[in-house]
Structure formats: structure tokens, C-alpha cells
């Protein structure tokens, strides 16, 4: 069919839309010839009869992929204007410029057919309402989508092949850089390197990401962070940063690729999902220098996994907390095999702890499995550990002293690095200010402000170091003697009121694997089966505490005394005798000579009934 026969007068009355797109900003900058060819289609529209002012150019999708129309505002505008009947013809250099997705392309064809809108590409003019033209345009759309798949497959295959060999260059985390030869090396900045080393040492000591963050805050140490322009800044350490560093295998010297999977949703948002280690594309240990070993990295991941306290992770010991329950996360129910939960309640002016196994009741409505009071069990476990622990006093005290001193020296060295960096930046700002022309006040004032800001940062770094040194734990002779005494007798360390519950639980974690508790209701006792780290086992039997009714029950000796006194005395006389002896009822009701006889009578009746 003649092209001029397809272009009708009603088409020329409407606008001609020229859609221009290139897939990436690099193509926009480098492939300028493609842009010229696309803009040149305006001449084709003028030759077909459209006026210059009728041609509408849509080029705000430059640098956007044609794989989807979700994030292409220009294409969405084109489809909208075609649907409203504003377009007489839609022009594109080729089908791939308009869409790389067959669904988007077929939708555009359907709307063009309904609106009686023509389509023009480099090969000719097409009428989507015509079956033959529609068939040809559909085939071109299918080929365009297949072409995109082939291009992506080739690019992706090359990337994966290089990644499996460990040669594909990926962005490196803070603390690692590419040297002039393209190999991965440690950050040359000593402050950055020492801070990261201190981070992993702190985590190995405290065993928790949140506790590591708290330790950095207490020591006043900032953590390095690399910006997009490769500039390194120091910020307060956050839990998310700590978790990201601990999970990154690059710090262990391992090349890893494919740790995450990305996909886009229907609204254009990108979803990131973590992959299991077995699903990674490549994992090559010892591929480059690192801050820790691969074995230490695996141990850190195991610790992080054991610290998770979600419901589905109830089978692992949670990190030590401040509650008084000594076996938190290590007490196992002797009936169902699940780990006990902790329940705390304030009673009689103190906090009481209970080991409760109630998952069957909460999940399936079954009866409560077990509820065991914590104090008797914890006391027996503590006494057992205190009796079996026999540390070498002097050697242990010296090791403790060395560890604490080394820890404070490391923190002070990092503060000194921060002061050196601040001094260097202040000197650089001073040189910039001194080199500027004094008459150019606009520039001079700005550089002077930057110099003052650097001096303020330097002063704050020095003040922070002095403040930290004032609060350092100094091991003088008295403290050293106290450490020796406490390590010589582990029982004193264990029962010392100043020892936090968290530290007791940390000590227990190095000794005991778990404790299985089984309540024996007929005997009023609890059996505790202890499994030590080395494989040794021990079984203890503790007395269960009295129930509330038993605790307020009057002493049977007092009841027997009342039985004898009732033969020869009245209530008021019996009350006086009991007061003289200092006797009380089970609920601590005291009798006085001033109480009415009726009150004393009620008290005696309660005592007599054994309530």
C-alpha cells in the first residue's frame, strides 16, 4: 500500500509524536549519532504533511532502559496522549526505541489501533488497524524483546565467568582498596585500618553487635565510612553498620559474588534478598588480604545467629542480659525438650524469676508444661561452679591486667590517630587560607570559616582524648590485689554483689552447655541435669520453694500450743501469752494486748484451723 494512502487528512489534523530514547546515560553521551538519527525523523513527518509546530518530541526518557514502562514517564505520556486521540502518528527510529517489552509494545499497538494512530519507524509507515501491518509490528516487537534477552545473556555470562575466577571488580567496603595493579589491598590510612581491627577485637570480646556499638560509644571511637566520591569520613558506629561489616566476607580476605539477588516490583521498586552461602555465584577464601581469617568470620556468623532472639530461633542461647535468671537461654524443659522462657515479677520488694515452658499452651491451647522458680536452681548451679572452678590466681590476674591495659592502649591509639587526622586537615585549611588573596574577601571569608571549623574539630578530638584518659580504669596496687584475691577465690567473684548478672552469664556460657530441668511435684523438688562444655555431666536435686498458701500457713507448733492453752485460758489471755513469746501467724498477723477480744478470737480461729 502506498504510504501516502495510509496518511489521511484526519491524521494530519492531529499531532505527530516523536519518541526518543537511549538505554543508558553512557549511550546518551557517547552514541550521539543515534540521537541525531532519531531527531532526524522530524523531516520524515514534515515530508508526510505535518507542520513543524505539530511535531511533539518526547525525549525525557533518555538514559532509561526499555525493558519496562513502569519507570518511563515519557512513554506513559505517549500512551496517554494516543489514548485521548491527540496523536496522528507515533514515530520511533525502531521498535526497540519505543519498547523492549512485548507486553508494553502490544498495549501501545492496541491503543493505536483503537485511536486510529499510525506508527512510523526507519522502514516505513504502519497502520495498526490493518492485520498485515499489525502482524509485522508484533513480529518486530517479539524480535526486539528477544534481542534484549540475548544482549543481557551475553553481558551477564561474561560477568559471571569473570566472577567465578574472582576477576570481576566489585565495589570494596571501607578498609579495602584497589592498588595501582588492580589487586585488592588494605587501606593505607592507618587510622582506618586500626579502627577496623579494633572493631573485630571488640566483637570477639563482647560477642554481640549491639554491645560492640556500646563499647565504641563509651570509648568515644568513631568508625570510618566511605562516601560515593571515595572520601572517607568518621561517624559514630551504628548497629546496622556493625552487622554489615560482620556479614561481609571481604573483611576475611574472601572474594564473594552473588550474595544478594535483586528484582524489580511492578511499581519499579528494587527488592534485595540475601542468598544462602550455597547459592552464591563465587566464594573464594584467601583471595586477598583481610582483617580476620575465614575461620574467624565463620565463627562471627555463628555468634550472630545464636544471638537472634526471635520465636523461631528459640532453640539457641540468647545473648546475656541483665535479668537475675542465671540459666537464661540455657535451661531446657525436661518434659518437652524446648528451651524455657524467662518470666520476671516484682514480689515482696524484690524481682523474682521463673523458668516457664508455655509454648504448647500459646500455640495449641495445651496445659502449661512446667514453671520452675529460678532462685533455688540458680543458687545450686552457682555453688557447683564455684566449687569446681580452681583458677591459677596470680597468672589469671596478670592476664586480666594485660588484657585491660591492652584494650585501653588500643582505644587511646585510635584517639591519637583521630587527632593526627584533624591536625592534618587543619594545617591544610590553614595553607589554603594563607595562599588566598586578602583582597578577595568572598573567598577569604569562606576559607577562614573552613579553617576555624577544622580547628574546632581538632580541639574536640583532643578534649575527647583527655576526657577518656581521666575515666580510664587504672590498675594500681590496690586494684591489682583485689583482682588477685577475687581470682584466687572464684566464689567471691561469683557472689560479689558488684558483679553484674550479664557477666555471670558470660562466665557460665564458657562452662555450661545447657541445663535440663524436671520438676518432681510429689517430692517438692527439681532435678537439674547439667551438661558441661567438655562433655562432663552432673545431676543436682533442689528443693522447690513453698507455694503462697504454704508460706502463710501458721507454724504447727503454735497451733499445738493454742490447743493446750484453750483448756485453761480465754482468747485475751492466749493473745497475751503469744505476744510474750513473740509468736506470729503464718501471714505475719501479730496479736497485741490492745486488740479487741473478737479480733484475737478470729486470729486464734485462723491459727487453729491451720490457715
What is the CATH third-level topology name of the largest domain? Rossmann fold
Strand content: 15-25%
Query: What topology, given as strand order, has the largest sheet?
Result: 2-1-3-4-5
Quantity of strands, as a count: 20
Tell me the Rg in angstroms: 40 Å
Question: Architecture of the largest domain in CATH?
Answer: 3-Layer(aba) Sandwich
The percent range for helix content is 40-55%
CATH superfamily of the largest domain: Resolvase, N-terminal catalytic domain
Can you characterise this structure?
It is a single chain. The protein has 611 residues and is of the alpha+beta class. The chain has four domains: 3-161, 3-Layer(aba) Sandwich (Rossmann fold); 169-307, Alpha-Beta Complex (Hect, E3 ligase catalytic domain fold); 393-475; 550-609, no CATH class. The chain is 50% helix and 16% strand. The strands form seven sheets. A five-stranded mixed beta sheet has the order 2-1-3-4-5, with helices on both faces. Strands 14-18-19-20 form a four-stranded mixed beta sheet, covered by helices on one side. It has a three-stranded antiparallel beta sheet with strand order 15-16-17. A hairpin with a 4-residue loop joins β4 and β5. α8 (102-115) packs antiparallel against α9 (131-164) and α16 (393-435) runs antiparallel to α17. Residues 310-316 and 589-600 have low confidence and may be disordered.
Amino acid at each position: 500500500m502506498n504510504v501516502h494512502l495510509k496518511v489521511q487528512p484526519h491524521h494530519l489534523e492531529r499531532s505527530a509524536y516523536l519518541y526518543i530514547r537511549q538505554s543508558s546515560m553512557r549511550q546518551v553521551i557517547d552514541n550521539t549519532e543515534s540521537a541525531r538519527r532519531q531527531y532526524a525523523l522530524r523531516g520524515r513527518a514534515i515530508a508526510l504533511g505535518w507542520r513543524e509546530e505539530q511535531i511533539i518530541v518526547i525525549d525525557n526518557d533518555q538514559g532509561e532502559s526499555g525493558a519496562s514502562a513502569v519507570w518511563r514517564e515519557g512513554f506513559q505520556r505517549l500512551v496517554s496522549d494516543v489514548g485521548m486521540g491527540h496523536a496522528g502518528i507515533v514515530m520511533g527510529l525502531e521498535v526497540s526505541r519505543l519498547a523492549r517489552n512485548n507486553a508494553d509494545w502490544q498495549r501501545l499497538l492496541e491503543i493505536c489501533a483503537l485511536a486510529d494512530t499510525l506508527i512510523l519507524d526507519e522502514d516505513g509507515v504502519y497502520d495498526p488497524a490493518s492485520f498485515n501491518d499489525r502482524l509485522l509490528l508484533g513480529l518486530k516487537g517479539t524480535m526486539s524483546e528477544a534481542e534484549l534477552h540475548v544482549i543481557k545473556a551475553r553481558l551477564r555470562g561474561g560477568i559471571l565467568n569473570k566472577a567465578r575466577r574472582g576477576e570481576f571488580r566489585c565495589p570494596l567496603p571501607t578498609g579495602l582498596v584497589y592498588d595501582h595493579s588492580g589487586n585488592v589491598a588494605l587501606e593505607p590510612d592507618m587510622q582506618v585500618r586500626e579502627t577496623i581491627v579494633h572493631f573485630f577485637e571488640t566483637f570477639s570480646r563482647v560477642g554481640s553487635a549491639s554491645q560492640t556499638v556500646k563499647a565504641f560509644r563509651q570509648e568515644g571511637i568513631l568508625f570510618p565510612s566511605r562516601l560515593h566520591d571515595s572520601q572517607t569520613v568518621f561517624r559514630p558506629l551504628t548497629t546496622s553498620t556493625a552487622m554489615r561489616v560482620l556479614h561481609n566476607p571481604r573483611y576475611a580476605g574472601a572474594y564473594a559474588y552473588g550474595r544478594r539477588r535483586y528484582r524489580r516490583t511492578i511499581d519499579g521498586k528494587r527488592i534485595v534478598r540475601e542468598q544462602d552461602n550455597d547459592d552464591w555465584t563465587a566464594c573464594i577464601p584467601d583471595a586477598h588480604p583481610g582483617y580476620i581469617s575465614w575461620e574467624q568470620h565463620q565463627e562471627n556468623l555463628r555468634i550472630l545467629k545464636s544471638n537472634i532472639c526471635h520465636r523461631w530461633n528459640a532453640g539457641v542461647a540468647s545473648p546475656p542480659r541483665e535479668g537475675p535468671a542465671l540459666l537464661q537461654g540455657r535451661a531446657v524443659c525436661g518434659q518437652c525438650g524446648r528451651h524455657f522462657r524467662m518470666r520476671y515479677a516484682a514480689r515482696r520488694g524484690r524481682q523474682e524469676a521463673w523458668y516457664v515452658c508455655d509454648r504448647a499452651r500459646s500455640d495449641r491451647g495445651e496445659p502449661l508444661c512446667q514453671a520452675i522458680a529460678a532462685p533455688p536452681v540458680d543458687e545450686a548451679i552457682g555453688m557447683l561452679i564455684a566449687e569446681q572452678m580452681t583458677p591459677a590466681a596470680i597468672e589469671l590476674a596478670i592476664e586480666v591486667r594485660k588484657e585491660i591495659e591492652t584494650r585501653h592502649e588500643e582505644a587511646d591509639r585510635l584517639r591519637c590517630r583521630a587527632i593526627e587526622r584533624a591536625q592534618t586537615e587543619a594545617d591544610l585549611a590553614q595553607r589554603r587560607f594563607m595562599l588566598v588573596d586578602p583582597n578577595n574577601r568572598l573567598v577569604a571569608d569562606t576559607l577562614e570559616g573552613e579553617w576555624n571549623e577544622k580547628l574546632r574539630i581538632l580541639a574536640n578530638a583532643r578534649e575527647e582524648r583527655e576526657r577518656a584518659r581521666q575515666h580510664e580504669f587504672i590498675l594500681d596496687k590496690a586494684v591489682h590485689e583485689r583482682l588477685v584475691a577475687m581470682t584466687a577465690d572464684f566464689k567471691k567473684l561469683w557472689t560479689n554483689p558488684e558483679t553484674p548478672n550479664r557477666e555471670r552469664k558470660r562466665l557460665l556460657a564458657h562452662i555450661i552447655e545447657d541445663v535440663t530441668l524436671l520438676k518432681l511435684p510429689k517430692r517438692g523438688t527439681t532435678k537439674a541435669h547439667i551438661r558441661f562444655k567438655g562433655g562432663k555431666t552432673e545431676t543436682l536435686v533442689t528443693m522447690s520453694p513453698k507455694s503462697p498458701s504454704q508460706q502463710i500457713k501458721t507454724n504447727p507448733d503454735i497451733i499445738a500450743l493454742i490447743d493446750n492453752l484453750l483448756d485453761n485460758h480465754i482468747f485475751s489471755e492466749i493473745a497475751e501469752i503469744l505476744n510474750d513469746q513473740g509468736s506470729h501467724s503464718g501471714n505475719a498477723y501479730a496479736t497485741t494486748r490492745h486488740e479487741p477480744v473478737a479480733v484475737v478470737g478470729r486470729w486464734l480461729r485462723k491459727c487453729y484451723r491451720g490457715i
